[in-house]
Amino acid sequence: MEMPETVETPLLFQRTTENDNHDGPVPFESWGRYPRFPAKLVPLAWQSDFPRVVEEHDNMPTGALPVGMGRSYGDVGLLRDGHLLVMTGLDRLLHFDEQTGVLTCEAGVTLAQILDFAVPRGWFLPVTPGTKYVTIAGAIANDIHGKNHHVAGTFGNHVPMFELVRSDGTRMLCSPTQNADWYAATIGGMGLTGVITWAQLRLKKIVSRLIDYQGIQFHGVDEFLALTEQYKNVEYTVSWVDCASTGKNFARGVFMLGEHSVMPDELHESPEPKLVFPFNLPGFALNQYSVKAFNTVFFHKQIKRRVRALQDYEPFFYPLDAVLKWNRMYGKRGLLQFQYAIPWAHAREGTIAIMEAVAKSGLASFLAVLKVFGDVPSPGMMSFPQPGVTLALDFPIKPGKSFPLFDRLADMTLEFGGKLYPAKDARMTSGQFQTSYPQWQEFAKYKDPLLTSGFWERVTI
Amino acid sequence: MAKKILVLGATSSIAEHTARVWAKRGDSLYLVARNAEKLATVGADLKTRGASFVETKVADLDDLDLHPQLLAEAVTALGGLDIAYLAHGVLGDQAEAERDAIAAEAILHTNFVSPVSLLTWLANFCVKQKHGTLAVLSSVAGDRGRKSNYVYGSSKAGISAFLGGLRNRVDREGVSVVTIKPGPVKTPMTAGMEGNEKFADVSTVGKNIARAIDSRRDEVYVPGKWRIIMAIVRAVPESIFKKTNT
Ligand SMILES: Cc1cc2nc3c(=O)[nH]c(=O)nc-3n(C[C@H](O)[C@H](O)[C@H](O)COP(=O)(O)OP(=O)(O)OC[C@H]3O[C@@H](n4cnc5c(N)ncnc54)[C@H](O)[C@@H]3O)c2cc1C
Ligand SMILES: NC(=O)c1ccc[n+]([C@@H]2O[C@H](COP(=O)([O-])OP(=O)(O)OC[C@H]3O[C@@H](n4cnc5c(N)ncnc54)[C@H](OP(=O)(O)O)[C@@H]3O)[C@@H](O)[C@H]2O)c1
User: What is the pTM of this model?
Assistant: First the structure.
């Protein structure tokens, strides 16, 4: 008997099938499948490989960028014609302190691998994004957030220490007290300050895989905000919101909340996912009608106004991970993500205005996620989360339509004092970036001269 | 019962991923490799994953004189021996090996002479204790010599032949010999090869190998499809094969 091969290293980068020439750089895409840049992949296997490999490739004159699982949507993890240092070979666990729950591991260890290790021992991730197929260093480099941001802050808030290696060979231990400026620049530093070789993560205790889950229907942004206030002490809260409907169904959604069950239960490892999305759907499959239908089904699946049940953490946190390569659902053109954070001062009006613009555009948004960011300060100089409201949308890319809408939504976001999330961006202009991240020039002082990215090249011109 | 396992060439990526299966179930591991820094990292990983005992030893396995002492220390530290897993090997530079006889000899030394020496000591020990599994990473490359890597291939053909004969000798003494023939696997050894993103995933390969060793298979191809592919490749008459220029 063979193990199924597809499930093991859930796709790193998809080599696009067109232009399969093996000698030169080949086109690679991130999770959004847009944009697509040719690059040379350089797999790293050991902590000592960087910067040694730089010399082996003629000093990488076109630049380099460390990458993890390629789960960012836009171009923070891409570099046109450069060298992508693939970190997933650094997948070793180095130490686990059973007393404090601090796990020390190499940079390319994924959150899925951490869960496989930690859950049977009664520990869980302190913060998790909507997919477990991201690396610990990728999570640090985008200072990612989860459904518990309002109580736990960002991922970086739970990273006591990591090692940063610069292209000149300097190795630094970074923590809130040691090389604190490098620590702050690297958390949310988008892989530009150096290569993280290993990191520590403070896990938290659980006694069960189960989540005590509730879903509550709401209609409109005000109901959403009221529910948020009412349940602000619940650990995980997030809302799915319908961005396609107008009129009486405008901004209807399901407010989802969850807490780790405190009833001790069997703590087994997750089974490996078996389903792989088999082919690229043709572009027309995802039009506004199919999305409306999808939304209606989703909304009414929850027939009662309120449901409460115990649910395994996998479907609660990672509903999409059960189908590997689901991004193929968007066809070859790929998808655009749009995620803003708007501070409290304009959060309500901004959210309503932007959702109205989306609904009116008729451009389908398959998944829209609405959440409130809490006021735990983000540890990174460039971190995205700030107190207020965040909304994340997906658009299948449609020529001539998606980009103008996106650009308008970005302008609106800035007018409301907000900013966009680099990990999910492929469109922001340098003007928009520099206005909403005014600290960028201070950050640029920490950039490694060898490292750069499609994103950085785009927003700093 | 925790198994007592000796891993030679423990910093090999395939070996690491096999040993993770053993670590997870709490086996005892004695790890030998030549690079101290890498070995320490691998040791830490396997310990963290749950190995009940991990000891590391830095040694260059090309040095045959070290072998008897090294193996004695390993067996002593483990308090016995259930499995010896030989993973060290080099791909070498075929072009260089065609020009330079010493380069060719070096490949044969690491991939053939060194394991033969180790297996001679190990087999005699296991026969004496009437127990033990000897598992060795050979390769599909040993099934037929090809233009592109025949020096490496011949070292693997040699070890496969040696293992076949050894199995025949020790089978009735309670000792198992497992010949492992991986197809192309994504590891540092193949990082420079073209088309390598289509190679087999090393973590899956590691798990399959651990399973084959547990069930004391005589000869195993991983992934399994390589048994069929190599049967076909071997069946091509030499008069035609020589013209394929691969
Ligand atoms: C389905 C889905 C759901 C998601 N949900 C969320 C969510 O809820 N919240 C959220 O915040 N994000 C979310 N994301 C985005 C994702 O969490 C981030 O993009 C994450 O950073 C991806 O990690 P990765 O390992 O794939 O890194 P990549 O995408 O490969 O790289 C991300 C960044 O990390 C840098 N990097 C990688 N390795 C290193 C290293 N060793 N040293 C230094 N820098 C490095 C890269 O240069 C790049 O800038 C989601 C993504 C998907 C696909
Ligand atoms: N990858 C494949 O496609 C493939 C296919 C078929 C068979 N194999 C075989 O599988 C085995 C493992 O290979 P791999 O793919 O895991 O590659 P790998 O990660 O490069 O492992 C090879 C290991 O052998 C070690 N080694 C080499 N010479 C040594 C010596 N004299 N003393 C001690 N250790 C030595 C290397 O140590 P250093 O790191 O210190 O150099 C390295 O750790 C090899 O025998 C290989 O021939 C591999």
Answer: 0.93
Pocket of ligand 1 (CB under 6 A): A 31, 65-72, 76-77, 87, 107, 129-131, 134-135, 137-139, 141-142, 144-146, 190-191, 195-196, 320, 423, 453
Number of domains within chain A: 1
Per the CB < 8 A criterion, the answer to whether B1 and B131 are in contact is no
Q: Do B223 and A2 touch (CB under 8 A)?
A: yes
A-B Cβ pairs (cutoff 8 Å, strict): 55
SS (H, E, C) B14-42: HHHHHHHHHHHCCCEEEEEECCHHHHHHH
Domain harbouring B106, CATH code: 3.40.50.720
**What is the share, in percent, of chain B residues with pLDDT greater than 70?**
100
The Å distance, Cα A423 to ligand 1 centre, comes to 7
| Per-residue confidence (pLDDT) for residue A402, from 0 to 100 | 85
Cα–Cα distance between A229 and A217 in angstroms, integer? 15
Distance A334 CA to ligand 1 centre (A): 18
Does any CB of chain A come closer than 8 Å to the CB of residue B42?
Answer: yes
In testing the pocket of ligand 1, which one of A28, A33, A67 has its CB within 8 Å of the most ligand atoms? A67
For residue A332, the domain's CATH number is 3.30.70.2520
**For B63-90, how does the pLDDT look when each residue is reduced to its tens digit (9 = 90+)?**
999 999 999 999 999 999 999 999 999 9
Are A216 and A112 within 8 A, CB to CB?
A: no
Contact A116, A110 (CB under 8 A): no
**Mean pLDDT estimate for chain B:** 96
**DSSP assignments along A51-85, one per residue:** HHHHHHTTT-TT-EEEESS---SSSTT--TTSEEE
Cβ–Cβ < 8 Å for A368, A391: yes
| Domain tally, chain B | 1
- The per-residue pLDDT for range B196-234, each reduced to its tens digit, is 878 999 999 999 999 999 999 999 999 999 999 999 999
pLDDT at site A21:
33
Pocket probe mutation, ligand 1, options A71, A158, A373, max atoms within 8 Å of Cβ: A71
* B38 in reach of chain A (CB within 8 A): yes
ipTM given for this complex: 0.93
Domain carrying residue A258: 210-430
pLDDT given for residue A295 in this prediction: 61
- Give the number of the ligand closest to the Cα of residue B141: 2
B161: tokens are 């032949």
The pLDDT of residue A333 is: 73
Q: Which residues of chain A have pLDDT under 50?
A: 1-25, 282, 284
Q: What residue numbers bound the domain in which B96 lies?
A: 4-241
pLDDT of the residue at A301: 61
CA of B79 to the centre of ligand 1 (A): 45
| Nearest chain B CA: its distance from A13 CA (Å) | 10
User: Is B7 a residue whose pLDDT tops 90?
Assistant: yes
CA nearest A443: which of A193, A250, A206? A193
